[in-house]
Design a protein that fits this description.
heterodimer; A: FAD/NAD(P)-binding domain; 27% helix; B: 205 residues; mainly alpha
Chain lengths: 1033, 205
Amino acid sequence: MTEKNLIDVLVVGGGISGIQASLDLANSGFKVYLIDKSPAIGGKMSQLDKTFPSNDCSMCIESPKFNECSRHPNISILTYTEVGTVKGKPGNFKVTLVKKPRYVVESKCTGCNICAEYCPVKVPDKYNQELSTNKAVHIYFSQALPLIPYIDPETCLYLKDGSCAICEGVCKPGAIDLHQEEELIEVEVGAIVLSPGFETFDPKLRTDFGYGVMENVVTSLDYERILCSTGPYEGTIRRPSDKKHPEKIAWIQCVGSRQVTPGGNSYCSAVCCAYTQKQVILTKDHDAGMEATIFHNDIRAFGKDFERFYQRAENLPDVRFIRSYVSVGKEIPGSKNVTIRYSTTDDGVKEEEFDMVVLSVGLNPPSDVQGLATTFGIELNKHGFCKTNPANAIETSRPGIYVSGAFIGPVDIPESVVAASGANALCSELLSYRRGDLSKEREYPVEKDVSEEDIRIGVVTCLCGANIGRVVDTPSVAAYAGTLPNVVYSEENLFACSTENAQLIADAIVKHNLNRVVLAACTPRTHEPLFRDTCREAGLNQYFFEFANIREHCSWVHSKDKEGATAKAKDIIRMSVARAAELEPLQEFELPVNPQVLVIGGGLAGMTSALSMANIGFEVYLLEKENDLGGMARRIHYTLDGFDVQPHLKELIRKVYRHPSIHVYLDATITDASGYVGNFVTTVKTEGQTKVINHGAAIIATGAEEYKPTEYLYGQDDNVLTSLELEDHIIRRDEKVTGSQSMVMIQCVGCRQKDRNYCSRVCCNQSIKNALKMREMNPDMDIYILFRDMRTYGLKEDYYREASEKDIKFIRYEPTDKPVVETAVEGGRHILRVTVTDPILGQKLAIDADLLTLAAAIIPAPSTQSIAKLFKVALNPDGFFQEAHVKLRPVDFAADGVFMCGIAHYPKHITETISQAYAAAGRAINLLSKDTVTASGAVCEVEENDCVSCGACISACTYGAISFHDTPKGKKATVNPVLCKGDGLCNAKCPTQAIRLKHYTDDEIFAQIDASVPDGERTQCPGGAGCSGCGSH
Amino acid sequence: MAFVLRALANGSDGVFIGGCWLGECHYVTEGNYDALSMMHLTRKVLELIGVNPGRLRLEWISGSEGMRYAEVMNDFGRQLKGFGPIGEGEGLDRTALKLKFLAVKKILPYLKLVERERLRVRFKTEEEYDNYFGSDEVNSLIRELVGEKLAISQITTLLATSPLSTREISDSLRIKPAEVSRHLNSAARQGLVRYDESQKRYAIA
């Protein structure tokens, strides 16, 4: 059977990157097919327990996106589907999709899971890394989207020999179809985004780690499942052999990574250091007495906030970080403990016994990557990842096909999300001529008027798998909720946020004629939009939804006191129910969006964003504080991966200046910024003029600076340079460089220290890049790099190895024993004498150098503070701009309509900056491609009869949302709902309670406060009848 | 302030206010400075009605300081256990307590006015707020502007239930008889209460 389908973009791979790409594309007005070869979307992220460095629950932040995809009118999800053939050219590809038989008819299945209960065949559960079993027919995982089982043809008795068919008999809706066949779907697509993800390195390939042989050796992904409340041991840490709590666990880093021996990968997998630290922190959270030992090479804490995260793990009691190569020894008969041999400089070689060993496995290209490359007609790099261009890592070698996620190379979630949003910008450039042609708007049923109805509250108590259910006695909580005033419906739910269960809630609203919904579950921060939407779909005003947080506020913090937690959950729900009864229906505002964008900063990041947005068709205002474009990139000439930066920069500058839709303002300073998402007004002083720019979105790309060292004789001796200065000297073939016979580089100058507690990410690579260039110029030169940890993460590891092979000497120093630099005259020659402790010999080593290069920190630009104030956006503790969510919103600010890219966010390489610049553009398009944005209904309003015109509210509101207007009764305060942010400060100032914040009215909050003390225990009022009273009797 | 008083009046033994650190408010209005002033004023009011001001606690805890939040809450819990249940710890019975909170509630608009006209300050550090609200100047200001108003509010609220003698008022409200007399005189001058010769008691005018 074949069908013909016309769509804009096909996204191949439904992990977090594919999901984000689909959402961004669909929100920009494109029709998207999201396909995944697994039975459900979610990818590897869905298997993780928590994510570093914020330790958010991985599934909890990812699953709302499943729902968003599934509810999006312009995204169609096809799971268990692969790509057969790809023909055609950009704008018009013809793709054949192969939908594998899952032997369950999706349109008939209700997800009740009865089939799995009756299935007699137990199979290892792939989702749980085969640490537990499931059935031959089962739902992939409990929040799976779609929530539909699939039958494993390898193990199903019927499909093997026709001997069973129990599932067919027990399935009431008749959804089992054991004769289902492969389905071919023809699609015509404009562009393709490849996000096939990665595979973890399989340590079985190398027998020396004992994996697959010794039961208590697990991989880090296995361990994620072990940690997870939905994992094989329901969130208690057990080891596979005897299911006992391990008391002593070892982690071995770089398993399958940074290895040139056969079977290993030469590159660094970039994520393992941080995920191991996360696992250590989580393990210690579960069991404070656990001893954790991490055997590592360099600690690569190169990401934003990673350094602090590492320190957090390192400073926990009974945690040892040991720098040593190791080998797995033997399994102790009986106890099944595992021994590890390692060596330290102090103690020599030792063998130590552990209850359990976790292998921190690296990231491999997706399985059958060669087949993938052939199907799509794209090239791979030598490691088997997608071959990309340093000037644009989101493009594959075939035009019209883009790449996002870990197929680019080993990257973490934020980079995957960045590339996904960036792919939106690139697809939008390609397909701008047809944007909106195929997409359609979401439609909601007409909202019902409940003003004449009695209050009918429905309470749903979510177990959140085991997150809540294993601590709080949810059946008793749900029964209790049913007894509360106005509650007419109370049910439990395993995972309220799964698409199917959210639908159940919508159905209940209709069936039981509910007009208020209280969900006792997790946090409104991540899940409120989803459930408000659920209410809308059931025809209920979304402000009738109320969240009772019994997870973050209860089960997670009181996991050791189940009774107390259950009582507290009841208290929380009682308060929410009381508040819910007072809720009012509110309407949101549609605000027009000005489709112009302001880009602040004319460096590589800002120009890339600006050009992309202009190519898509938006008017762009680009501000640069200097008198020419280019920024920091002017000082960078070449990169490790051979990118010739200056020609690219020159061409970019030319395109930007020439583009009719880009208005460049040089010598620009922002003097004022006001307004709000969709309608900002920014005043700029530029070349003696003052300009007022109206724009709907802003992209902040203000860059950063190189630290001017005060250490190591910098500024006192002309032969002490920073890395960027050295690069400049190399390019100019300066005598200082060409004439040197010996050079020392010192890493981590000005950062990874108390006052700048972060790693500048780029310096290790920069030093290696310069060292290799120097070696090229002078094969006999002595070159030393004094370092703390070499952080050549990802594919750059190869250049570190190349440098070692080319006799560049690497000497590790400790921060407590820094190198010492002094000037000296040796044989009539002026030299710099660098003294450093040799870590192997433990002796002081004096190196006489002609040239000393300092890898100086990247520090925030001085303008960062004022820009943050003007646009009301946050900075992180190190002074870089703070994104809205470190994993899933890496280029958004918490303030709507403002985005960031480049090194103003955090130090990063040029290729990373370019990807991020496309991502910022991709996110801004989401906003600007719509005619309107929606503003909250939870804003203030004035009861004019009570207003005494005192002006207290007006002086409190620095947003300028309140003003006086003339009425027949005199001046009265009035609120501009568009400017109101709903912080309620005016409410506290008003002496007559004439101004109220909707959705947080006094009545709503009093009801909640009163309910905080159970009825019987509340202090009774002394006032009799007729007492004007406090309302609490 | 109304929310805090409502909770205490209901019998909650303490109220905790958590906020973002000064200078880190998500809103440009930076209401946490206002909250700090309001917390100080509320504590003064609690003191004036004989309720332990330690039952109201404000701490700055950012979203990432989960551990600190747990520590602070445990500490506050211990502190409140030390104070004993509200009222009992202060030697006030529940009726008197409720009445006192009702009396404060009645003068809330006035308190807001006092705050706005006389106590509206904006400092940079928490210490400056502590010093300001701990100063003799502010203390005498509060005694003058709030003390009497609040005492009279308590007395009139009490007399609304039934006429009482000076001694009875003093016992109920735990205010010294001499002060009760002074406040009664002043309330009588304002025409709020009258002396009922027949009952030999004060009553609402």
